[in-house]
Each structure stands twice: as structure tokens, then as C-alpha cells.
Design a protein that fits this description.
Blueprint (H helix, E strand, L loop, with lengths): L8 H5 L15 E4 L10 H11 L5 H17 L3 H15 L4 H14 L7 H12 L3 E9 H11 L3 E5 L1 E4 L2 E6 L7 H14 L7 E4 L5 H6 L2 E5 L3 H10 L3 E2 L3 H14 L14
Parallel strand pairs: 1-2, 1-6, 2-3, 6-7, 7-8
Antiparallel strand pairs: 4-5
Helix pairs in contact: 2-3, 2-4, 2-5, 5-7, 6-11
Length: 273
């Protein structure tokens, strides 16, 4: 691809008064899927890979994780594969201390996940932060992984699958359900309601057809490197589509800077009842 001319600063940041949306007195949330949206592949694979390196699981189990990773990258999410991956993840953490798994998550971030992030999608998270938005990662992966990513990227927090713990040790049972598809949308909707955010002002980013419920509930859905089904749905509904190409990335970031409402400094979450 030929090198594209970089926009001048005025192209990227300047807006006329007519183009500038009115600042919001309420919080605005940008929701980001993780796997194949913020990073290449599935974060769950790296949990399995590190567990294998620490001899928590054997070669046969890591081979299954590797197959799931290849399949996910090539064709996207599949509910059956996700259920199988969930069961393997529960088996990994069951019987281990919360402190040990949090330490494992930090190690995975430093040595695996941080090297596989898409810089351009990370840049979009920072564009939202600059607007005063809350930025939440929303993923079916264990919430410990998402929380570590959010912390290191300077984001607000993470929603993810929660495994029960008693006295600091994981039982291997879920709290609720895997955060996937409709349940991911429900968790994001509940978060927006608790924050006092209007969904019409919120944003969501994902690559997967399984996140159509999440994308459809916000006023500003953006599909990122979508699978075939999501690409078709996005075209039918006129949703912006971001590919990992210089022009597409620049357009997506410019859109946030120009069209996203800035949150006033005084805006805050409502006090709990």
C-alpha cells in the first residue's frame, strides 16, 4: 500500500462551533471488546500458555488452547469453542489462590498480551479518555485479565467472566454466567445505568457477530476488523467499520475527536441510593 500523506493538525483536531457537539453533564462510556479488537488473538490462550509454562497444565491441554487460538484468529468466535474454553479456564483457576492468579495475570500482561496489542485500537481508547469518557473493557475472558489490561492502559476498568472465590481461593464455579453475547450487553447496560450515562452517547467497539447486541444498544457502534457476519450486519445498518489500514484508522480516530461529546469536568456518577 502506498504511503498516505499524514493530515495536518487542523485536519485532525480543529472543529468549527457548528461541528462541536454540546459537552455532556453525564458520564459517557466507551466499551471495548478485547480479543481481536484490542489485541490479536484470544487472551485466554495466553492464560493457558503461562499455566503450561508453570506446569499447572500438561501438553495435551495447551495443545487444545493453541488449536482454539488458531481457530479464533482465522474464523472468529464460536459458541461451542467458547464454552469449551470457559470450562478449561475454570479448571485452571479452581483450587488456586486469588493472589496467585492475579500475579499470573500481571506476568501474562508483561510478557504476552502487551506485545500483541493493536496500537491503533489502543489509540482510540486514549482518544476517549481525552474526551473525559469512562473506558471499559468488556470480554468473556476472566475479569482478572481484563482488569490488569485496563490498569496498565490507564482505562476505567473491566467487565469479564467472574469465578467464585472463598477465603481467597477459587472454587472453579462461575459467579453468574460467561460474559458473552447478550450477557455482555446486559452487563454493559447495567454499568451505564449505574453511571447515569445515556446509551445514545456511549460507544462500543468489537470484531465479532456475537457482540451485535452490545453494538446495537449504543448510539455509536464501531466494528473493528469484523468477521463476515458482523461486516454484513454493519453494512446493512450503516455502522462505521474500522480496518487496520492507515486511512481507516485515521478516519475512526478523527470521528471520535470531532463527533464524541466531551464530558464536562463537573460531571460525575450519581450518588448511590
Amino acid at each position: 500500500m502506498p504511503e498516505e500523506t499524514s493530515p495536518t493538525p487542523s485536519d485532525d483536531t480543529a472543529t468549527s462551533p457548528l461541528e462541536s457537539p454540546v459537552p455532556s453533564d453525564r458520564p459517557i462510556i466507551a466499551f471495548f471488546d478485547v480479543d481481536n479488537t484490542l489485541m490479536r488473538g484470544t487472551s485466554l490462550f495466553h492464560l493457558g500458555r503461562e499455566a503450561w509454562a508453570r506446569k499447572i497444565i500438561g501438553f495435551r491441554e495447551i495443545a487444545r488452547f493453541a488449536w482454539h487460538q488458531r481457530r479464533f484468529i482465522s474464523v472468529g468466535e464460536n459458541p461451542d469453542h467458547l464454552e469449551s474454553a470457559k470450562d478449561r479456564a475454570l479448571g485452571l483457576v479452581g483450587g488456586h489462590s486469588v493472589a496467585d492468579i492475579n500475579s499470573l495475570a500481571e506476568h501474562i500482561w508483561e510478557h504476552r498480551i502487551s506485545k500483541r496489542l493493536y496500537p491503533d485500537t489502543v489509540g482510540l481508547t486514549q482518544d476517549h479518555v481525552a474526551k473525559g469518557h469512562e473506558v471499559w473493557l468488556v470480554s468473556a475472558t476472566p475479569v482478572e485479565i481484563g482488569a490488569v489490561m485496563a490498569k496498565h492502559l490507564g482505562l476505567t476498568g473491566a467487565l469479564g467472566t467472574v469465578v467464585e472465590s472463598i477465603d481467597g481461593v477459587y472454587t472453579g464455579r462461575l459467579v453468574g454466567h460467561t460474559l458473552h453475547a447478550e450477557r455482555k450487553a446486559e452487563a454493559a447496560r447495567d454499568l451505564a445505568a449505574s453511571a447515569g450515562a445515556h446509551l445514545a452517547d456511549c460507544w462500543a467497539y468489537s470484531d465479532s457477530r456475537n457482540d451485535i447486541p452490545l453494538l446495537a444498544m449504543v448510539g455509536n457502534p464501531v466494528v473493528v476488523n469484523p468477521d463476515a457476519a458482523l461486516a454484513h450486519h454493519a453494512q446493512e445498518h450503516g455502522w462505521p467499520m474500522m480496518r487496520l489500514s492507515p486511512r481507516s484508522i485515521r478516519d475512526a480516530r478523527r470521528r471520535v475527536r470531532r463527533e464524541a461529546r466531551r464530558v464536562r469536568r463537573g460531571a460525575r456518577r450519581p450518588d448511590p441510593a
